[in-house]
Amino acid sequence: MPIRYDADLARFEAACTVEDALPLAEWLEATAAPRVDLSACTDLHTALLQLLMAARPVVTAGPEDAFLGRVIPLPPTGP
Amino acid sequence: MSELFDQFVVEVQELLETAGAALLALERDPADRASVDELFRAFHTLKGASALFDMAPFTLLVHAGEDTLSLLRDGRRAMTPELADRLFRALDQCARWVAALEEAGALPADAAAAAETLVRGMAGGETTTDAAASAGEADAFPWVAALTDTERAAVGEGALTAIDYTPDPECFFTGDDPLALFRRVPDLRLLRVEPTEPLPPLAEMDPYRCLLRFRALSGAGVEAVTPAFRSVPDQVRIGSVALAPMLAPSAAPPGSLAAAMLDEQARILDLPGNAAERDSRRAAAARAVAAILTALGRATERAAVEAACTDAHTLRRFLADGPAEKPAVAEPRPATAAPRRVLRVEPERMDALMALVGELSVVKGQLGPLVRRAGDGEMARDLKSFEARLDGLVGDLRHAALRLRLLPLARVFDPLPRLVRDTARRLDKTVELVLEGAETEADKDILDVLGEPLLHLVRNALDHGIEAPERRAATGKPPAGTLRVRAFQDKGGVVVEVSDDGAGIDPAAMRRAAVAKGLLEPDAAAALSDDDAVRLVFAPGFSTADSVSDLSGRGVGMDAVRAAVERAGGRVEIASTPGSGTRVRLSLPLTLSITRVVVVEAAGSLYGIPVALVGGVQRVPRAEIRGVKRAESVVLRDRVVPLVRLRRLLGQPGDERVREADCVVLAELGDGPVAVAVDDVGERADVVLRPMTGVLRSLSGYAGTAVLGDGRLILVLDLRELL
Amino acid sequence: MSGTNAGGPRILVVDDAVTVRAFSRRVLEADGFVVDEAVNGIEGLERAMATPPDLVIVDVNMRKMDGYTMLRVLRRDPGLRDVPAIMISTESKDSDREQALLAGANWYIVKPPRPEMLVEAARLLTGRPPDREDAP
C-alpha cells in the first residue's frame, strides 16, 4: 500500500505508481486541508506529482530520496 | 535611427559592389584566395550591419551567403557558374531590398519567402552548415538565459546540456513516467517541472492526462544525456548551451554583467600562452578588474588588484572576500583630439558653392578695367599686384571647388564587369573585359551623363560587335573576344573609348541600309566616304543589326548615345575596320558647370565655342576655299569640309575687309566636321555657363551666356542648333 | 577614477563596417564617451598609439589586419598592453569567444550588440559608475 490515507494526512511510502493517481485525486478533492508526508517515498509517478502541484497540499515532510528531494518544486513548509 | 540607416544604405551599396567585383574575379579564377576572402568579408560585414536593423530576411540571406563562402574558402565546396549565378542573385536581391528600404522604409512583404528560396538555392542540397545549426541551438533554449539566481548558483557555469521535454499528454496510458526518465540523467543540475498551461481545479482535472513539461540542465555531454530519452525522441529536445559563470555576491550582483565580466577576467588569467602573452593579459585583466570595481563604487587600490591577478583562483577569492575600501588614485587623461570624419556634402550646397565661385570670377574680372584706368602711379602698381594675387587665389579657389565635384570614373566602370559577364553568358560568347583608367576623374554631372551611353555601347559591342566563338575560330581569331574600355584625360576633358575586336562595321552594308531605310538617296550614299558611312550608326532611326536583339537593338540606339553626349557638350567618334573591330570614342568636358570655350570674334562681338567640339583652329588662305554658288568648302586634313561663316549664321553683314586668309575653327559635330569661319580667334577660357533667360531664351543657337575673366560678356554658341 | 575630465573616457571603435561604427559612436557618445574610429587593425593601432584610449572595441573580421592580430600587437605594446579590450563578432560559438580572449580581449560581445549592453560594458571597463549624476 504505497499511499496510506489517515484523515487529512497522506503518507507516501516506497514507489508510488500511476495506480495511486485516481485514489489520490479523490482524496485531495475530498479533504478540506490535505497534508502529505513524502519522507518515505522512494519514487513518485509523474501523475502523482501533477496532482500535488495542482492541489498544493501542505508538505509535512519532504522526501528523503535525493532525486525527489532536489526536483520536487513543492516548498517543504510545516503546518 | 534614420541617419544611421542612411549610412547603412551607403555602406551596403559599397559592400554589394565589392562583393560583385570579387565574385566576378572568383568565377574567372576559382583559386583566387584574395577574392574568396574579399567576398566572405563583404557578406560577413553585411550580416553584421544588417543585424542592427529589423530586416531578418536580409540578414538570413547574407548569413547563408557567408556560410556558402566559408565552405568555398575551406575547399569544401567548389565554385561553379551555377553557384556564381546564385550568389549574384543573392547580391541582386540585397540591392533591390536596400532600394525598397530606402523608398518604403521596409522590406517587401515577400522578403522572407524570397530569402528562403535564395538560401535554399545557395545551400544547393547540402546539409545544414555548422553556423546555422549552432545559431539554432542558441535560440532553442531561451529559458536557460532566464534562470533565477538560485538556479544559476545551483547549475554552475560553462558548457551544459539542456533538456526540453514536453511529454505527450496521453503518455501515462502507454506506461511512460516522464519524471522517472530524469533519474537516468547523469550530473543533473536543475530540473524544472512546470504545467504547460495553468492547471485546472482538481475537480476538473483528468489525473491520467499529462499537463507538465520538464526543463533540465545537466553537466554531462549531450551524448551522455540522450540515452535516457531514447523512448521519447519526438517529445524531447536536447542540446548544448553555454552558461556565463556566476560570481560571488560580494563583488557584484550575481547574474549581472559586472559579475560575468569579473569572472571572465579570472578565466583570462588561466588561459594558456607564453610568458609574455600571459603577462600582458594579466596586465589588461588587472586594469579591467580595477575599472569594473571602480564602476561598481568599490574602487580598489591598483596594486592590490594586480597582486590578486596571478591566477583565476586567487582573483576569485580576492573578489569574493570583498575588496579594500581605499579608492584608486585618479590618473589625469590628456585632452582628446577631434576624431577624423569623412564629410558628406549635399549636392545643392556644392552647386551653391560653384555658383558663388562663378560670381567671384566675374566680379574679379571687373577689377581689370579699373586697374587699367588707374594709370601708372604707385597706387596703380599696388593695385596691379593686388589684382595678380586675387587672380591667383580665385583661380585656385575655382580649381579647388571644381575638384570637390570630381569623382573617379570607376563609378561608371563598376557595373560593367557584371554586365559583360551576364550578357556574354546569355549570348554564349566568351568575352574578356579590359578596363583601363578607372581612376580618371570627372565631374559628377559628367559621370551621370556618361553612365547610360557607356552601358549601351558595351551591350552593343557584345551583341553586334563580338562574334560567337565558332565564327571567331573560323576567321582565325581567338575564341574569346576582347572588349576594352579605356578612360583618360584629354585637353581639359575626359575621354572614354569602347573598343572591341569583333566583326567591325561594313561601310557598304551601311550605305545599303541607309538607302533601304530611306535615309539617303542612292547617289548621296555612294558619295559617302567609308568613315562617314560608318558614322551613319549615329543617325536617328538607324540600326545595324538585321534583327532586333533583346539586348541592345530596342529603344535607345546609337543616336541616343550621341544625343546624350552632345547635350553635355561632348562628342562621339567612331572608327571601324571590317573584320577586326570597332572603336567608339566619347569625349566629354570635365564638368558641366564650367565649360571651356574658344573665344571667337565676329562682327565686333565675342562668342564662345565649346572646346570639346573644336578639332582645330587654323588660317586658311582664301584661295583654298572653294565656292559653289553660296556654299563654300575647304579641304582640311584630307577631307572636304563644308565651310560656314559665323557672320552669316548670325545674320550679320559680311566682312568687307579684304583678307588673304580666313580664321577657321574646325567643329567636330556628330554627323561630320564643319569649318566655321570667324573674324578672329582669341584665347581659350573656362567659363561658368548661364542658361539664357528672359527674352533671350527664345533665341536658338545659343547654349548660354558667360562672363570672361576680364568681365566681358560672351554668347556661347550651340553650333548644332545654329547649323 | 580615470577619465572623468572633459570629454569622458575615450573609446576606440575598430570595425570595417561604417554602420557598426556609426551605431557604436551614437550609442556611446550619447552616454558621454569620446569615440574614435578606425576601419582596420592597422589603423586601429595607429590611432591607439597616437592617443591611447581607455577602451578598445574591436571587430574580428577586417581587411588588412583583423581584430585578433590587432589585439595581439596591442598587448605587446608597452604603452597599450593593459588597455581593456572588447571583441565584437557575429559569431556566438564558444570557440570564437575563446579565440578572442586568447588574443587579448577582456570581454566578448556577439553582434549586434544591444545598445544598453554596449554602454554598460563600456562603463564597467572604463571604471565609470552606472549613473554619473548619482556617483559620489
TrEMBL record, chain A:
Species of the source: Azospirillum oryzae
Protein name stated in the entry: Uncharacterized protein
Superkingdom of origin organism: Bacteria
UniProtKB/TrEMBL annotation, chain B:
Domain of life the protein comes from: Bacteria
Range of residues in the leader sequence: none
InterPro entries: Bact_Chemotaxis_CheA, CheA-like_dim, CheA-like_homodim_sf, CheW-like_dom_sf, CheW-lke_dom, HATPase_C_sf, HATPase_dom, His_kinase_dom
One Gene Ontology CC term in the entry: cytoplasm
Domain CheW-like, first and last residues per copy: 594-723
Domain HPt: 1-101
Name of the protein this chain belongs to: Chemotaxis protein CheA
Organism: Azospirillum oryzae
Automatic annotation (TrEMBL), chain C:
Domain of life, source organism: Bacteria
PROSITE patterns the record matches: RESPONSE_REGULATORY
Pfam families per the UniProt record, alphabetical: Response_reg (PF00072)
Biological process, per Gene Ontology: phosphorelay signal transduction system
Alphabetized UniProt keyword annotations: Phosphoprotein
Keyword Phosphoprotein appears in the UniProt entry: yes
Residue(s) carrying 4-aspartylphosphate: 59
InterPro entries: Bact_response_regulator (IPR050595), CheY-like_superfamily (IPR011006), Sig_transdc_resp-reg_receiver (IPR001789)
Keyword rRNA-binding: no
Response regulatory domain boundaries: 10-126
PANTHER family to which the protein is assigned, alphabetical: CHEMOTAXIS TWO-COMPONENT RESPONSE REGULATOR, STRESS RESPONSE REGULATOR PROTEIN 1
The protein, known as: Two-component system, chemotaxis family, response regulator CheY
Naturally occurring in which organism (per UniProt): Azospirillum oryzae
